[in-house]
TrEMBL record:
<feature type="binding site">
    <location>
        <position position="91"/>
    </location>
    <ligand>
        <name>NAD(+)</name>
    </ligand>
</feature>
<keyword id="KW-0560">Oxidoreductase</keyword>
<keyword id="KW-0520">NAD</keyword>
<feature type="binding site">
    <location>
        <position position="36"/>
    </location>
    <ligand>
        <name>NAD(+)</name>
    </ligand>
</feature>
<dbReference type="GO" id="GO:0052588">
    <property type="term" value="F:diacetyl reductase ((S)-acetoin forming) (NAD+) activity"/>
</dbReference>
<dbReference type="InterPro" id="IPR020904">
    <property type="entry name" value="Sc_DH/Rdtase_CS"/>
</dbReference>
<dbReference type="GO" id="GO:0048038">
    <property type="term" value="F:quinone binding"/>
</dbReference>
<feature type="binding site">
    <location>
        <begin position="15"/>
        <end position="17"/>
    </location>
    <ligand>
        <name>NAD(+)</name>
    </ligand>
</feature>
<feature type="binding site">
    <location>
        <position position="161"/>
    </location>
    <ligand>
        <name>NAD(+)</name>
    </ligand>
</feature>
<comment type="similarity">
    <text>Belongs to the short-chain dehydrogenases/reductases (SDR) family.</text>
</comment>
<dbReference type="GO" id="GO:0045150">
    <property type="term" value="P:acetoin catabolic process"/>
</dbReference>
<feature type="binding site">
    <location>
        <position position="157"/>
    </location>
    <ligand>
        <name>NAD(+)</name>
    </ligand>
</feature>
<feature type="active site" description="Proton acceptor">
    <location>
        <position position="157"/>
    </location>
</feature>
<dbReference type="GO" id="GO:0006633">
    <property type="term" value="P:fatty acid biosynthetic process"/>
</dbReference>
<dbReference type="Pfam" id="PF00106">
    <property type="entry name" value="adh_short"/>
</dbReference>
<dbReference type="InterPro" id="IPR002347">
    <property type="entry name" value="SDR_fam"/>
</dbReference>
<feature type="binding site">
    <location>
        <begin position="64"/>
        <end position="65"/>
    </location>
    <ligand>
        <name>NAD(+)</name>
    </ligand>
</feature>
Length: 261
């Protein structure tokens, strides 16, 4: 559904699912801030150029979502440069491929800081900005099928995504009275850099050839093909737009038929 004069910020939007979400929201009529870490600036500015071609305003903001002050500053910059603030998509996340007995404190801390803390800082920054601007808004965060079922070798990742579901359910109830909807999307096996990494790391652990672990994962999908970033972006478009006004606290599976709620 078309929107007018609304502003969204997408984290981790330099590539993969975040890029597809940013482009889809621009097609829907949003002006979109592209947030990513500094080393992704060139890719992020490429997404900005793609959005400007669609005819919407866009800006790149360097922000590490694990740093609360950087998330606050990114939201402030988006609102100032794009002239409002209506939607945040807390999409940035990392995977970690490690047997449960081998996870170190440093590794656990790193994935927690990005996948959990990063989502909380996004929820807080967006809610504060909506309140400052005197209206409600939409908060949408990246979960995963691993938020609904724990996956071996992805245990810390799974636990971090369960936490995203928890924050989504609780924040939805706390923020409903302020006119803020809080939801999450739960993709399955999406063909991005993240799955290139998972496939390569699994290959090191189980000796299968590169591509084999991904193929086996995709073989289990009812709709019979790997998920594209654009498949995910369609669901985020719904959660960011007016058609989801009566939906809150939900984690929506978009996995081509892997898990059934
Ligand atoms: N690829 C998949 O199969 C699935 C991915 N997801 C989730 O979707 C989201 C996006 O994943 P993909 O696009 O596949 O990953 P990706 O690895 O292709 O892209 C992730 C983006 O997040 C950025 N990022 C990483 N750490 C960051 C930080 N500290 N601050 C700001 N940005 C940071 C990266 O620079 C990159 O641009 C993640 O939260 C992921 O967990 C969920 C289910 C399946
Ligand atoms: C990357 C991811 O979330 C899965 C479940 O593959």
């Amino acid at each position: 559904m078309a929107v007018q004069d609304k502003v969204a910020l997408v984290t981790g939007a330099g590539q993969g699912i975040g890029r597809a979400i940013a482009l889809r929201l621009a097609q829907d009529g949003f002006d979109v801030a592209i947030a990513d870490i500094e080393p992704q600036r060139e890719k992020g500015e490429g997404v900005v150029a793609e959005i400007e071609k669609i005819g919407r305003k866009s800006v790149f903001v360097a922000a590490d979502v694990s740093q609360k002050d950087q998330v606050d500053a990114a939201v402030d910059t988006a609102a100032e440069k794009l002239g409002g603030f209506d939607v945040i998509v807390n999409n940035a996340g990392i995977a970690q491929i490690k047997p449960v007995l081998d996870i170190t404190p440093e590794e656990l801390d790193k994935i927690w800081q990005i996948n959990i803390n990063g989502v909380l800082w996004g929820i807080q920054a967006a809610a504060r900005k909506f309140e400052e601007l005197g209206h409600g808004g939409k908060i949408v965060s990246a979960a995963s099928i691993a938020a609904v079922q724990g996956y071996p070798i992805l245990s810390a990742y799974s636990a971090s995504k369960f936490a995203v579901r928890g924050f989504t359910q609780a924040a939805a109830q706390e923020l409903a009275a302020k006119g803020i909807n809080v939801n999450a999307y739960a993709p399955g096996i999406v063909g991005t850099g993240m799955w290139d990494l998972i496939d390569a790391e699994l290959a090191k652990l189980n000796g299968k050839p590169i591509g084999q672990n991904l193929k086996e994962a995709v073989d289990g999908i009812a709709l019979g093909r790997i998920e594209t970033p654009e498949d995910v972006a369609k669901v985020v478009s719904f959660l960011a737009g007016p058609d989801s006004d009566y939906v809150t606290g939900q984690t929506i599976l978009v996995d081509g038929g892997m898990l059934y709620s």
